[in-house]
Amino acid sequence: MMAALYDLILAPFVEFDFMRRALIGSFVLALSAGPMGVFLVLRRMSLVGDAMAHAILPGAAIGYLIAGLSLSAMTLGGLIAGCLVAILAGLVTRHTQLREDASLASFYIISLALGVTLVSLKGSNIDLLHVLFGSVLALDDAALILLASISSFTILVLAVIYRPLVLECVDPGFLRTISSMGAPVHLLFLCLVVINLISGFHAMGTLLAVGVLMLPAISARFWCQSVGTMMGVSCVIGILASALGLIASYHLGLASGPTIILLAGVLYFLSLLLGPQGGLLWLLRRSVHLEG
Amino acid sequence: MAAIVHLNDLTLGYERHPAVHHLTGQIEQGELVAVCGPNGAGKSTLLKGLVGLIKPLSGSIAWQNVRPQDIAYLPQSADVDRSFPISVQELVAMGLWRRLGAFGRVDRLARQKIDAALDSVGLAGFQERLIGTLSGGQMQRMLFARLILQDASVLLLDEPFAAVDDRTISHLLGLIEAWRREQRTIIAVLHDLALVRDYFPTSLLLARECVAWGKTEHVLTETSMQQSRSLVEAFDRDAEFCERGP
């Protein structure tokens, strides 16, 4: 029995270095993606995250064109492209009639087309797959350090801007009358979104990067009522999905990035059913009401 | 009494269309001013201009010895995201921003102030409730509690009694009365003219242009009311450029 459990859960990580790296990589990613996702959900920016994930593609593709599958070149390119799109979309929103989601949507679809074109200019289809779906099993030391740095930086910055950020979400008009922090805090938050997407991009690729950000956070909404606990629960769900996903992909021979996201999807459906905050099964109990 | 704000030929508006047109006057420290007028008369716009949310199209607003953080503003429909999981206590605590800033700890003193503020708007015991569970009137009272904590010397209230029941209105009027005794300046947009006559010594009757401004009994007369109704016109897409000089 114990031996079977060992073979099932621990053996893959004990025997293979790349599995350990993948585990650590996806854990650090989940640690910062959890809280970030919670804010994206609460600010109704779930789809904005998706849009920005695509927006970093052309930048990463240009980095790839110049330097091949190089970590630093693709990171730098993605960073520049992501921030550029965030700022452009912000400017368009501020100065035209378009809302932020609409302006982001138009920028990201252009970016995606541009990115895929750029990658296919030089690379093979394998490279394109690598860019689109990532390579959590091929994380080297440099990539792990990058992911860990991004994660630490994100958590530190979130701690610093936490109060104005919450206020920006819940009552932006009020924040504007008491402090001029609103706009810089929003911009800083968008930058955090970009760097976390770059983390996710290295592990899961552009198409699934947003999955590690959103799915755990959306699931967490079904379990708790305060922002603080939501961030914790979101991290835990992310870590759980990563570990289970890697184990499943190892034993079943599935692509690991998508399997992690699929596991996050399973946890989402479980939350949707069982979560005490609006989970579907709890609706059945509705008929009993309280005294006051 | 010293004037706390001068409005000099002030025009406020949106996309160059004026909502408040060539308004000149002043408000003194400690005054309790009601802003009245029909829908679309520019009342809310005036408050937004005063708090600095929109910039004048022409003319100016000159505050005397008032810093931006001395002004508290209660908007008509606060754009509070009511689905956000935040408790009444946490939201009201943000009224202490000037003292706490982005990092200050909500200590015992702060907690006492929050409790007292909630108590004075009749929301004692609501501390832990999520804001999404409040009714419209309770929401408004919670925002009033936050206003109390802001401890501002100038208060701009945009229809503060909308969706609030009679008992609470008289309670909130008591608060306003107390603020006035503390020499705070209060400017409120109100629709209930009887209430204005009873409680507000000064009124400004606005209909895009200033119809009358002064002692309430001289402002809210039948003639001026009729005049105000005829002045507000529809948003004119093809309006000519305003040629009126200062």
Describe the structure.
The complex is a heterodimer of chains A (292) and B (246). Chain A has 292 residues and is mostly helical. Chain A has a single domain, classed as ABC transporter involved in vitamin B12 uptake, BtuC. Helix content of chain A is 83%, strand content 0%. Chain A contains 14 helices and no strands. The radius of gyration of chain A is 20 Å and the shape is globular. Chain B has helices spanning 43-51, 88-93, 97-100, 108-120, 136-150, 166-181, 193-199, 216-219, 222-231, and strands at 3-14, 17-28, 32-36, 58-63, 71-74, 154-158, 185-189, 202-207, 209-215. Chain B is built from 9 helices and 9 strands. Chain B has a 6-stranded mixed β-sheet, with helices on both faces. Chain B starts with a strand and ends in a 15-residue tail after the last helix. With 246 residues, chain B is an alpha/beta fold. The A-B interface holds A 42, 160-161, 163-164, 166-167, 169-174, 176-179, 181, 224-227, 230 and B 51-53, 69, 71-73, 75, 78-81, 84-87, 91, 94, 97-98, 102-103, 130-131, 146, 150.
What are the key terms here?
heterodimer, A: 292 residues, mainly alpha, ABC transporter involved in vitamin B12 uptake, BtuC, 14 helices, globular, B: 246 residues, alpha/beta, six-stranded mixed sheet, three-stranded antiparallel sheet, 34% helix, 25% strand
Provide a quick synopsis of the model.
The complex is a heterodimer of chains A (292) and B (246). Chain A is mainly α.
What's the architecture of chain A, going by CATH?
A: Orthogonal Bundle
CATH class of chain A: Mainly Alpha
Instruction: Characterize the quaternary organization of these chains.
Output: heterodimer
Tell me the count of domains of chain A. Answer: 1
Radius of gyration of chain B: 19 Å
